Amino acid sequence: MSTTFSFIGKQIIIYCGTPIFISGICGGLLNTLVLLSLRTFRKNSCAFYLTIMSIFNIGQLFTGLFSRIMNSLYDIDGTETSLFYCKFRFYFFHICTTTSLTCLCLATFDQYCSTCSRPRWQQLCNIKLAHRLVIISMIIWALHGIPFIVYFNHIQSPITKKITCTSTNVIFTQYRAFFIIPGLIGYLPVTIATLFGLMAYYNVKQATYREVPLIRRELDKQLTIMVLVQVIFPLVNFM
Fold first, then answer.
1. What confidence tens digit (pLDDT) does each residue in 190-221 have?
2. Which residues contact 107 (CB under 8 A, 6 or more apart)?
3. Which of 69, 138, 175, 201 sits between 20 and 30 A of 127, alpha carbons compared?
4. Radius of gyration of the chain (CA)
């Protein structure tokens, strides 16, 4: 019975995961290309957050889904054969996931500030500030992920003699299970991104009743739509 479920799971990963992986890579590259090629977006802080998010989304797909697809296709798990890969795969996946979600939250907040009628909030939409916030968040998540390098090790089953890559620290395992997964990459970023995304959308709708230049209004509308589309994917995955 377990063999049957394992086979079904592998087939799902192969035939469902592969299209998701290919479309995700193509979408991430396309987003990055569009946001970097247009001068208007290159100087926009929200577009910068979306660019960094797209880059880390690609890294997330390679360190996460791609490894599962290769394991399902060739029945070879790199985390079981290489201790280095065991440690750094989870480490880099953690950095890519948390940084991507952080950029998503920053993008929605930035777009809310950009569409806000208060000049004080609009001053927060600064490309230099965006650069600093992204660098700071990357450093924070890189330091936060160090326990993955320290505590993830090879464990050999005394019965099956099979080697698995897992955390050997009980406290960190519980911290990851009850805080990182449901909190840092679950409820918290989804709630923040959804909240500010909807508020930005409301501000864009209200902009038609305010004296906002047409070019500025159209740019805000485009970026708000892009942000809302990006919010949908983690929201659906979380649900």
1. 999 999 999 988 888 876 555 555 556 667 77
2. 46, 49, 50, 53, 227, 230
3. 201
4. 20
DSSP 165: E
Q: What's 63's DSSP letter?
A: I
Q: Which two tokens stand for residue 239?
A: 């649900």
Q: Is the dihedral of CA 219, 201, 233, 48 positive or negative?
A: positive
Gap between the Cα atoms of 76 and 72, Å rounded: 8
109: nearest Cα among 235, 236, 223: 223
2-238 has which fold? Rhopdopsin 7-helix transmembrane proteins (1.20.1070)
Q: Hey, CA dihedral for 59, 63, 67, 69, is it positive or negative?
A: negative
Compute how many other C-beta atoms are within 10 angstroms of the C-beta atom of residue 208.
9
pLDDT value at residue 43: 85
